[in-house]
């Protein structure tokens, strides 16, 4: 969800999490600086002259995301800029040792390397991350994947901003992102709308999926599973905790997947859809205990130590 300033939205979201659930103060303090730096970079890049990706309307109409098979050379400078800014913050958050930090910095400062990682992420070439992790001496390929996604996210988010009206008008009914092909990390129901005619507030409630990588929000059927498309009400279920109905789990018992959902009609100010997820870990825990798997594994919902 776009805003005048991504950084201000992150700040207000983190403050709301701390105020409402003090138990999340530690994780908000730990990851807050990372969210804020990512948001600042997105704002800065969106304000600049970022290259716009080529749009092949025939491929898009066939369900092929915009960045599949793309040449990432036009954005490698921005990616390297992002790495220079975010790696020190990531090192602190993930408690990386000095040797790993230097290896990462040197690797991501090379145009071919950073382009290769971006291409591997879009293609889902996880073997590339495994091999590069071994090369750099990093213990887990998932760590390199998270670092790469964090570095690329501000660039891809600014790219989404640059596509503007094209994406707003694009009809896309798939459960994966039309820009980068990633699955959603969260969904939301659109906020109430103010009409120009009479200034009455109403409506809203349209369902959007939020991309786990580039942050694009695209319209999706409200009664369908984003993972498998199941729209059978008998095999889909909604869970919420402590009577907080505007933050919930949308579960599909056909495929065993779930996606968190926030009803923006009940939110003021509107939250940052990436940052808010660290304040919803209790929902992930509930989903795990009910044998559900997230549509998009994240650092918040995939590791036992991250959610317990």
In short:
With 308 residues, the protein is α+β, with helices and mostly antiparallel strands. 45% of the residues lie in helices and 12% in strands.
Q: Explain this structure to me?
A:
With 308 residues, the protein is of the alpha+beta class. 45% of the residues lie in helices and 12% in strands. The protein has ten helices and nine strands. Strands 1, 4, 5, 6, 7, 8 and 9 form a seven-stranded mixed sheet that branches. A two-stranded antiparallel sheet has the order 2-3. Strand 4 and strand 5 form a beta hairpin. Helix 4 packs antiparallel against helix 5 and helix 4 packs across helix 8. The longest helix has 29 residues. It is globular. The protein starts with 5 loop residues before the first helix and ends with a helix. The mean pLDDT is 92.
